[in-house]
Amino acid sequence: MASTSDLPGDKRAIIEVVGLTKRYGPVLAVDDISFDVITGEVFGFLGPNGAGKTTTINMLTGLGRPNNGSIRIGGIDCTDNPKAAQHLLGIVPDESNLYPELTGFENLCFCGALYGMPRQEREGRARELLREFGLADAGDRKFETYSKGMKRKLTFAAGIMHQPPILFLDEPTTGIDVASARQVRQIVAQLHGQGTTIFFTTHYIEEAERLCERIAFIVNGRIVRSGHIRDLLQPVQGRNVLLLSVSRSGTSLCEEMKIAFPEYRFQPTSPGQIRVESTETIGIAPLVRLLEERGVQVTEARRRVPSLEDVFVEVTGIEADMMKKDKERTGGGAANQ
Amino acid sequence: MKRWTAFWSIFMKDVRTYYLKPPNVSWGIIFPLAWTGMFFIRAGHGLESLTDVLPGVMAISILFGTTSVLAVTITFEKRQRSFDRLLLAPIPLELLMLAKTGGAILFGIVTPFVPILIASFLADLSGVAWSLVIPAIILIAIVSTFLGLLIAVSVSQVFEAQTFSNFFRFPMMFLCGLFVPIMSLPVFIRPLSYALPLTYGVDILHGAVHGGNIMSLALDFPVLGAFCLGLFALSLRNIRRKWIV
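Structure tokens for the assembled complex are given below, as produced in the milestone run.
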């Protein structure tokens, strides 16, 4: 469980989840997960497609009913009454779901009105957000005419229209261009600076590492590891990682290399890539020599500082690149730069 | 107050984006006009018989007007997920659905005035009990809208909503006493007529327009009201069961 017990006394949990479970027929989508989110933090929820991230968000925000477990948001028990805390929440879903026939400005005003914002206030806030997101010139255009990146940004703006103390961001940078993704990340950092609690799901591990304070890895509906980034990184710090791009890879080749270099750990991570890991410094030249002797061409050898990605790979057994590609194949785009 | 701000915004957004759009405005005018022309001509017993078919034409205009738009718009919004945005707003589901159906109810209230206007030029409507016609129109609009809502929340595709609503609408034209008196239907079909809400609304209109009601108005109004509440409650239940999963 992502516990808050190790946090300073003045930091309290604003979201408390205990034993949350969700079944869809025979499929166990979320399996007895528990975690806390602290007031004002950015909490990352990482996992591959179908891990249970969106199902969890749906249960927390009131779009889904848990089969078991309890949810408290802002001290309010929302397990059986999901409407009770909805006034505290802002939600940016993984797909843009604004009204195509309304303009950007009208969409934002409408979203503000849903939270009871008076007309003058919502119009002022809508203009402010359009400026902030670089959409001021497109404010009078219908949403259906927006590009994918513009749609994503307006959807984000709609989520923070009423300045919620808790914001749910479901894959906010998926499928948008690099510049828009960067802008979204800047806004997340800015909101965090203003004290907004952010529940952030992503499959971009570097993005989570950059923005979040604590992280939970979810795989097949279960939280497999969670904690502060510095604590999660501790076991991999001091390790050396080398990525070799090769003309052919495979388990047998790795086994051969293991015999020659028993102090290193070899793992074929994807077709054409071998990951070498050791607590000692890895010498590139002997490795390349051995591979070339075996008729394998080495096109690139890249040293890497151990990161959260290594933790993720270790914990889940899923290669982060594969997760990214999988997401991009199913509708997202590459935006994590 | 905040809830009413949300209510008003949802209602006005729907009126602007759906009901005031040229295709719907023309549907609201042309459709009742077509029915009016067809049945007024078909009556064929001279202009004095217009009042006999007027209640049926009014009811059919309301029924088709409300169910057509509502069944499509709600299903469409659910599919493109903008309906989720409404479900995430901090307003009670009851109020949200009243706001979503408000536009359709209003649309349903306006459409029967097309045949009434035409009939006012062709027949003497001085004997019509308007104090009964107006509440009947309102109740028929509400019950038809909630029937459309129930259909919309019971399906997932727009075409299913259209097919499903036709499954109800066309039999109701013949079973609810719109143009064929219930008493002239075969005895074994009549229980079906009494199980349909439109029967009671049309009966009030027949009573108000030409004194041809077959049931007591003291029965028609409460039964129609009960259908409104029942259909709305059933729709809410379906939304909670099927859309908040």
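Chain B touches chain A at residues 1-3, 5-6, 8-10, 13, 17, 80-82, 84-93, 244-245 (CB under 8 Å). Residues 44 and 120 of chain B are 18 Å apart (CA to CA). Further analysis is deferred to the final report.
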